[in-house]
Design a protein that fits this description.
mainly beta
């Protein structure tokens, strides 16, 4: 609310100052040429308008809503359930079984002997002469030639160079450690108490065999195998087959028709009416009395106290700082062309 009032005040002051600024600008503009300089005949003091804002204390009346809680008595209509017992009647169907005599038609089978005819096939075996062809194998020897590679071994002497390791004795000086018995002398009596073993290093010459490579040349005889072709003749068995016709007796089975008579037992159905008893269920109505609990609702008025909150407007005077903007006429420096 305060901000809205300050904005409206500022807008009103600006609208009042606008004609004054427009008149000053129009007067200055008539006295200047296109270059922005004042003409010699209308040159005078120049002014500009500036906005100046000040804060002033303003008293205002503010209305506030103050809540007030009071206790009030209200009347409500309440519905309460009331149970009471009632006697009622109901008709129910009671199932009752009774015996009823009924009739039905059934078919009973009677067996009869009847004569019938049938045609059967009787197998008959006949021996028939039959010719067939078989393949008879025959073997004959044939002479054939083949070229084979015959091995031939010859000896050749070749010279080979090889390295032999020759053992050469060499005398070397080496050191080794030995244990020597040293008597133990008692320093008090000067007598030999015992002996102890002490290590001693000795130097001796040792003959060592070393391997020295030596190149030797010797003649070695090798067996060399060479192959030369040779024609040879050999016998090969050749198997051939020839056709031969033979005769044999083969049994041939054929069938002959024969009519024969036989007896058949046939079942013939015959209708028969018979009586039987059936249990039939009938529903007989009966009246029964029973008691039920019935719920009824009754309305009654109930008074009770409730808390009621109301709002009351309270006037309050406050002081606020309001910005006030005014237009001030300020002289400016004259243009260079007017000096």
């Amino acid at each position: 609310m305060n901000k809205l009032f300050a904005s409206l005040t500022t807008l009103a002051l600006c609208l009042q100052a606008t004609p004054i600024a427009w008149a000053g600008w129009h007067r200055c503009n008539r006295g200047c040429n296109n270059n922005g300089c004042a003409a010699p005949i209308a040159c005078g003091p120049a002014y500009t308008m500036q906005y100046h804002t000040e804060y002033q204390k303003v008293r205002r009346t503010v209305y506030r809503c103050v809540p007030q809680t009071s206790e009030q008595e209200i009347t409500e209509c309440v519905t309460r359930p009331v149970m009471h017992e009632e006697e009622r009647e109901a008709t129910v169907c009671v199932p009752t079984m009774r015996t009823v005599e009924q009739q039905r038609t059934v078919y009973k089978c009677e067996y009869q002997t009847q004569q019938r005819q049938r045609t059967v096939l009787i197998p008959v075996t006949n021996w028939v002469e039959q010719k067939y062809t078989v393949m008879v194998p025959e073997t004959r020897m044939e002479t054939r030639e083949a070229t084979v590679q015959v091995p031939e071994v010859t000896q050749q002497t070749r010279q080979e160079t090889f390295t032999v390791m020759r053992r050469v004795p060499t005398v070397e000086t080496r050191q080794f450690t030995t244990c020597v018995k040293v008597p133990c002398i008692d320093p008090c009596t000067g007598c030999v108490v015992g002996c102890r073993m002490e290590p001693r290093v000795q130097t001796c010459n040792v003959t060592v065999m070393r391997c020295v490579p030596e190149t030797q040349t010797r003649n070695v005889t090798y067996n060399v195998c060479n192959y030369h072709p040779e024609k040879r003749t050999y016998q090969v068995p050749v198997c051939t087959c020839r056709a031969e016709e033979r005769t044999r007796q083969v049994p041939v089975c054929s069938y002959q028709q024969k009519v024969e008579t036989y007896n058949v037992v046939v079942a013939v159905p015959r209708p028969v009416v018979e009586k039987f008893n059936v249990q039939v269920c009938e529903m007989i109505p009966q009246t029964k009395r029973y008691k039920v609990q019935v719920c009824e609702y009754k309305s009654e008025n109930v008074k009770r106290k409730v808390q009621v909150t109301t709002y009351q407007r309270v006037a309050e005077v406050v002081e606020e700082m309001v910005p006030v903007t005014t237009c001030v006429k300020v002289p400016c420096a004259p243009a260079p062309c007017c000096q």
